[in-house]
Please model this.
Amino acid sequence: MTLLFCLILVFATGVGAVATGSARGRWIVIAHGIAAIAVILLIPWKSIVVRRGLRRARASRWASLLLALLVVLA
Model:
């Protein structure tokens, strides 16, 4: 849930930074950077969940790995 909140915050501040596009919107860019750092700090905890999920043999496992690869490439 925390990761979802951080990702929504990163998206919203990113859109806000692009929409503002001036020096007055500097605080939005700073908030965007802070939210991005929060996402990066959540990676170790998310990797535990991912490893646990990969141990389960499910048909959708390969689709999940493909999606993760596409996210990394993007």
About this structure: Helices lie at 2-20, 26-41, 43-55, 61-73. Residues 2-73 form one domain. The two ends are 23 Å apart (CA to CA). Residues 55 and 61 are 9 Å apart (CA to CA).
